[in-house]
Structures are given as structure tokens and as C-alpha cells.
TrEMBL record:
PANTHER family: DNAJ DOMAIN (PROKARYOTIC HEAT SHOCK PROTEIN)-RELATED (PTHR44240), J DOMAIN-CONTAINING PROTEIN (PTHR44240:SF10). Residues 1-23, 56-105 are annotated as: Disordered. This is DnaJ-like protein. InterPro entries: Diphthamide-biosynth_chaperone (IPR052276), DnaJ_domain (IPR001623), J_dom_sf (IPR036869). CDD domains: DnaJ (cd06257).
Length: 309
């Protein structure tokens, strides 16, 4: 699996500059290994990160592959540049996929490309905006845009496999500007789901029913913000959401499914991406479309929804 655009690169983990000599790199690795060891006050997670970083750049051949973006986990343009348009049916699977509207990740990809060109500078030829070496050097703000776009595309590809009976809307405007959007709305027999796809570049956890983590901006409240946007859509369409779901990569979640607080009757959840489809298919106990006809809910949303372009 390719690195997240926000992932710390091996040089950052080892605490050296990318142009450090082989001897400097080796000394830094030994120092970080001692600091990160659980017996000396570190943690097993940090110890593993140091070892993984050394595997990526610890030998001349591995370092050359990483520096040129040709190693398997460098997140090259082939993966970051791929844009989901709703997902692909698995080979041998003839079941109809979910009905899908909108362009998942489209807004953030456009913002990423605009800011990347601005950061590189006018008049500079930008052959590959997804070149891994270029992405690694970009400011975190720009890398985060790409990370979120990729996260939305991954989630959309998974949701597309829900099959008949489910309808998806992506990048739904829920406020005055394009940043005020719901990444995915899912409607099916198990209810109406508002879904936020995110990648903060590292693990998250839950405190007082809200998602927190080192990668979040100060004061950022993902569940609260999702609830505010869901309220806008619910009011315009005259519908009620069953659940508010924050989706992250599996390795960043504290567990496969974590209950957050309930807001206006909608259950908040923090979910690993690999668990999402099964969760929505099976639903939550006692949660559905509230007795309202599914076709009626779909019609109301379709008539009122505004897609971000």
C-alpha cells in the first residue's frame, strides 16, 4: 500500500536531512532506536516506525529506490494520481453496483493542483504534480489536500460495492462554500448515512465522544462539523440522518468501530474503511429510515442536493 501523502518520511522519523551521509544516517538510526525502545521510555509503535524507516533508506539500494520514488511504498504518481469515478466491479461479480452521483475527491484534487502549481511557481514546468519527491517537499497544507482526496476516492470505491438498493451522493454542498460539504451521503434500507473521509497522517482516538489526534488542527472537531453540515442537508431535503460516520485508514483507527456521541438522534461512529461497507449493509440496531418511504427520501434528497464542482 502506498504511503499517505501526509506520512512522515523516513528521514523525518530518523531525524536527519535527506542529504545526510550514510554514516550520519546510521548514527541517527542507532540513536533513535535507543530512544524509541520501550525499555528506555519509548513505545513499541515508535520503535516499529524507526525500524521501518531504516528498511526504507538503510542500504544504498533501498535509499536510492526511495529517493527516486521507485520503491513499493513511496506513493508514486500511479497511485496518488488515480481518481475514483465510483469504483470498479470485481471480476466475476455480476451484481449491480450502487447508484452514484457526484465526483468523490474532485474538489480537493482541484485545490491540490492549484496550490501545487502556485507553490512551484509561475512559469515552472510541472510535468508530474504527483511526483513523490515533489509531494514530499510540499507544505503540509498541500499534502493534506491530496491525502483527503485519496481518502474520499478509496471510500467511494468501497461504497460503490454496496449494490442495488443503495444510492450515493459525493461532495454534497452543505453551507456557503465548497469546504462546507459532506464527502458522502449513503441512502439504503439501513438508513441515511453522512460520511466524512479523512486522513490526518497518523493515528486518531476518541475523547468525550469526539475524534482527536496529533494530525488534527487546533480546535478541529470532525464529528461536530459533520453534524452541522448534515443538519443543513436534512433541513433542505426534509429528511433525518441515521448516523454520522468518520472514516479513516485501518491503521489509524483505535479499533474497527468506535461509538462517538449521538447528535440530534444520529449516532456518531469512527470506523475503519475496511469495516464501512459491512456496517452500512447490516445497519445499526433500531436504526433505519424512520418509517419514511425509501423512495420518498431518495426523491427529496435528489431534488435538493447540490454537488460541489
Amino acid at each position: 500500500m502506498a504511503d499517505s501523502p501526509l506520512a512522515s518520511n523516513p528521514y523525518e522519523v530518523l531525524g536527519v536531512a535527506p542529504n545526510a551521509s550514510d554514516d550520519e544516517l546510521k548514527r541517527a538510526y542507532r540513536k533513535r532506536l535507543r530512544e524509541a525502545h520501550p525499555d528506555t521510555g519509548g513505545s513499541s509503535a515508535e520503535f516499529d516506525r524507526v525500524q521501518q524507516a531504516w528498511q526504507r533508506v538503510g542500504t544504498p539500494s533501498a535509499r536510492a529506490a526511495y529517493d527516486t520514488g521507485s520503491d513499493a511504498g513511496s506513493g508514486g504518481g500511479g497511485s496518488w494520481a488515480q481518481s475514483a469515478t465510483g469504483g470498479a466491479r470485481r471480476r466475476g461479480d455480476s451484481r449491480p453496483n450502487a447508484t452514484s452521483h457526484g465526483h468523490p475527491g474532485g474538489y480537493f484534487r482541484e485545490r491540490y493542483l492549484d496550490l501545487m502549481r502556485e507553490w512551484v511557481g509561475r512559469g515552472v514546468e510541472l510535468d508530474d504534480p504527483y511526483d513523490p519527491q515533489l509531494v514530499r517537499r510540499a507544505p503540509r497544507e498541500i499534502r493534506h489536500l491530496l491525502a483527503v482526496a485519496v481518502a474520499e476516492e478509496k471510500t467511494a470505491t468501497a461504497l460503490f460495492t454496496l449494490g442495488m438498493g443503495f444510492t450515493l451522493w459525493h461532495d454534497v454542498l452543505a453551507g456557503s462554500g465548497p469546504l462546507d460539504k459532506i464527502d458522502h451521503i449513503v441512502l439504503g434500507p439501513t438508513g441515511l448515512w453522512a460520511v466524512l473521509s479523512e486522513d490526518w497522517g497518523g493515528p486518531v482516538k476518541v475523547k468525550r465522544g469526539e475524534v482527536i489526534g496529533e494530525g488534527l488542527a487546533p480546535g478541529e472537531r470532525p464529528l461536530h462539523d459533520l453534524a452541522v453540515r448534515a443538519k443543513v442537508v436534512a433541513r433542505e431535503a426534509k429528511v433525518r440522518f441515521s448516523a454520522l460516520v468518520v472514516v479513516v485508514d485501518d491503521e489509524h483507527a483505535p479499533q474497527s468501530l468506535t461509538n462517538l456521541r449521538s447528535i440530534r438522534g444520529a449516532q456518531g461512529l469512527l470506523v475503519e474503511r475496511s469495516r464501512l461497507v459491512n456496517l452500512i449493509r447490516t445497519g445499526l440496531p433500531g436504526v433505519g429510515v424512520g418509517g419514511t418511504d425509501l423512495f420518498e427520501v431518495r426523491t427529496r434528497i435528489q431534488h435538493s442536493v447540490r454537488i460541489v464542482y
